[in-house]
Structures are given as C-alpha cells and as structure tokens.
Amino acid sequence: MLPALSMGLTLAVLVFGVAAAQPAPSARVRTAPGVPIGTAALPSANTLAVLTPSPMPRPTRPSWTGWVTPPTRPPSTGRVTPPQPARQEPVTADPVTAAVMTGMAHRPGRWVALTLDDGPHPRYTPQVLALLRQYRVRATFCLIGTQVRAHPELVRQIVADGHWLCNHTMTHDDRLRRRPDDRVQYEIGAAKRLIEQVAPGARVRYFRAPGGNWSPRLTTAAAAQEMQPLGWSVDPRDWERGRSAASIVRQVHRQLAPGSVILLHDGGGNRAATVAALRVLIPQLLRAGYSFGPPA
C-alpha cells in the first residue's frame, strides 16, 4: 500500500512541476519550425530530478503510555451493617374492644350463639320463636325499650321459651356514645328496668350498643348494672334493604367458625328474608354438628 501511495505522490509532483514551468498566460511561446507547440515547455531531465520528492516515511503507531488507572473504592472494613428495622411503638390493648364479648372462647367444640336485635316485633318475633321451638334451639334477644313497652306479651313469651335477654337501649340511638352522661344512663337503665318489670324474675344478662357504636362510657355503664357488653363476629347484614334469604345464608356460612356470635334481626323493619334464612340456617348448622348456646 505504501509504494502505491509514494508513486501517486510522485506523479502529482510531476504534474505540478509541469504546470509551474508553463509560461504566464500573457506570454507567447515561439517554437522552431517542425517542433510541436508545447514541446519547448517540457522540463528537462535535470528539472525532473530536482522535482522528484524523496520517499515518504512509514507512519508509526503512538507508543503505549501505560495502564489506565481504574476507579478506586473505599477500603472495606470487613463488616456488613445489617438494615435497621423501623421503630415500632408498643401495642396497647383497646379497653373497649377488650370489654366487648364477640365470641364463645370459653366453650370448646362447635358452639354458636344466635342473637336477634331490635324486637320484639309483632309479626316477625312470633315466627322466629316458632322456628326456635321447632328445632329446640335457644337464642339471645336484644330488646329495645319502646318495643318492650308496646309488646310486653312477646317479652314474656321469649322468657317462657328459655331464651336469654339483652338490653338494646330504650330508643336505639345510634349516637348514644356521644350523648351526655344523663342520657346514657337513661337509655341503658330505663330499658333494663322496663324489661324486668314486664317479665318479673327475668335476668338481663347482656347489653348491646346500638349499631355496635361502643365507647368506654357505654361499657362502663353496662358493667355497673351487671350486664356483659355483647358484640358479634358474624354479620350477614340482613338489615340492608333488598337483602335476600339466600345471600344471608351465604354470608353466615362464609364468616362462621366455632364460637361465633351471629347477628340477625327480628325487628326494625321487614324481616321476612331473615325468617326465611333461619328456616335454612338452623337445620344446616345442626346437621354440621353445631350447638346453640348463650354468649360466654
């Protein structure tokens, strides 16, 4: 490749020399007769020798200057610092949650507590009582004071059938936990006294806050009157409008476990779906080996 490059450069120099030897455009060249025009302008051999360049030197690669210094890392101490866990605050038990009974933890085996709220109702409570009597099952009725006053004979029938009683306040005020102390005392105390009045000798063992809206004042007031605050662990939401018997049954089975407290309603609205669901649920639970008892 280099000889070819040298030859090309030599020819370029020769052409350049010939062009340089040409007279200026304004000069007129005279030649002897018989000599072609331009022959006199060719360079001589001596001129060619002078214009011939020396061979070009062979290109050389640049010399290696040394190694490239890699980036340095900080020296290792030989110890790996483990990630520090996030600081956790101590967990304290909620006194309200601890006071409210939601299961039958003290009963081994397949026990369940059936509770019915917002009665007694003149249409649906008798139907529920008939079903319980048919299957020899006992339940807990959470009674509202105004309903007790309106239907005292149903309270006496509940007691006569051996069921358990629960105080559900006088008027079912969902915001009772925000009311003044005198209102709290009236709602709980007046309902308890009225139940005991219409059913002499009956014991009101439990208290359930309206809507499950608890507060320390409510649990304290219930305990002061020797009533156990009662919650639930299974809520099929049978009180919702448009709820079908099939959906109530399905939700109970989905949430059910041994020791559950089931929340249903025999008052407070149209409870036809609840009664229909009980016709299915009670025999199903009995066939599954469940026994019905009081929350404890």
UniProtKB/TrEMBL annotation:
SUPFAM superfamilies: Glycoside hydrolase/deacetylase (SSF88713). The keyword Signal applies. Gene3D superfamilies: Glycoside hydrolase/deacetylase. InterPro entries: Glyco_hydro/deAcase_b/a-brl, NODB_dom, Polysacc_deacetylase_ArnD. One of its GO terms (biological process) is carbohydrate metabolic process. GO terms for molecular function: hydrolase activity, acting on carbon-nitrogen (but not peptide) bonds. Residues 110-293 form the NodB homology domain. Keywords: Signal. Residues 54-92 are annotated as: Disordered. Residues 1-20 form the signal peptide. Pfam families: Polysacc_deac_1. The keyword Nucleus does not apply. This is Polysaccharide deacetylase. It comes from Carbonactinospora thermoautotrophica.
